[in-house]
């Protein structure tokens, strides 16, 4: 059983967001405990497990995402990583449909090697700044928004890009906000710098102190910044230590997320590791 580590939302090794990808043979997913053990062993933000669906008219693969601690409802970078593996190995071409806990998600490969994912747009609901958030985040929020159950984050606008980059939050305190965590964002300082907004994402409640590049968060960031900047197509920089770029295109209740990916490790699970599958 092959396991690959793929860097998503980047075109070079050692950048972007790494995800584990395991293509299963079927006919069904292994035991939940085994999936969680593999994800914990890989110890990345998410590990994706993809199962072929040869008899389905609605989707080509079933896809699940697990952090080292739990299974999640939506993950952008691990979906991109899985589509990259399918295309780079010749397992799939063109459009791939994934059946997930967030419905059927469609990915499409472009001639330049980039991949576009069709995700549901997150609903935004303005809410008062929660008590204690400023202290936990380390800065006074400009505005705060809930992002709906599928994303489950608290989106926090802060003063400027420098503030985003210099955040050093109290991660234990941040577990009180959002069912998954906190998205901190601000407009790009340089409008000619190649991106429109900057973001960092903190999810200590699901075992991820800071996620390097978060595709799912951009389903909320796309409508947020499109409204403010007056454009439906934008580019976001996620300013983690690894950095990465996500191109967004708002299409009403759907958001298109585009990025590149590169495989950095390609290996095998040992016989002992596969025994519980």
Automatic annotation (TrEMBL):
InterPro entries: Phenazine_PhzF-like. SUPFAM superfamilies: Diaminopimelate epimerase-like. Transmembrane segments: none annotated. The keyword Isomerase applies. The keyword Metal-binding does not apply. Pfam families: PhzC-PhzF. Keywords: Isomerase. Belongs to the PhzF family. This is PhzF family phenazine biosynthesis protein. It comes from Streptomyces ochraceiscleroticus. The lineage of its organism: Bacteria, Bacillati, Actinomycetota, Actinomycetes, Kitasatosporales.
């Amino acid at each position: 059983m092959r396991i690959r580590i793929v860097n998503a939302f980047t075109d070079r090794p050692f950048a972007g967001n790494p995800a584990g990808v395991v293509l299963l043979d079927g006919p069904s997913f292994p035991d939940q405990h085994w999936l969680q053990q593999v994800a914990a062993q890989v110890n990345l933000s998410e590990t994706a497990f993809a199962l072929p669906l040869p008899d389905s008219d609605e989707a080509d693969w079933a896809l699940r995402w697990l952090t080292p601690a739990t299974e999640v409802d939506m993950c952008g970078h691990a979906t991109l990583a899985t589509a990259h593996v399918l295309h780079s190995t010749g397992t799939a071409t063109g459009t791939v449909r994934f059946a997930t806990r967030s419905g059927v998600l469609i990915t499409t490969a472009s001639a330049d090697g980039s991949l576009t994912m069709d995700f549901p747009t997150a609903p935004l609901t303005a809410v008062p700044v929660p008590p204690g958030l400023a202290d936990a985040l380390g800065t006074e929020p400009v505005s705060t928004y809930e992002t709906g159950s599928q994303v489950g984050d608290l989106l926090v606008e802060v003063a400027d890009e420098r503030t985003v980059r210099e955040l050093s939050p109290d991660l234990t305190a941040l577990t009180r906000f959002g069912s998954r965590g906190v998205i901190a964002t601000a407009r790009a300082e340089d409008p000619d710098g190649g991106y429109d907004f900057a973001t960092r994402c903190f999810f200590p409640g699901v075992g991820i102190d800071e996620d390097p590049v978060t595709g799912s968060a951009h389903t909320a960031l796309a409508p947020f910044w499109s409204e403010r900047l007056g454009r439906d197509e934008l580019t976001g920089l996620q300013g983690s230590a690894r950095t990465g770029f996500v191109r967004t295109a708002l299409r009403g209740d759907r958001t298109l997320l585009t990025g590149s990916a590169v495989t950095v490790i390609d290996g095998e699970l040992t016989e002992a590791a596969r025994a519980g599958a």
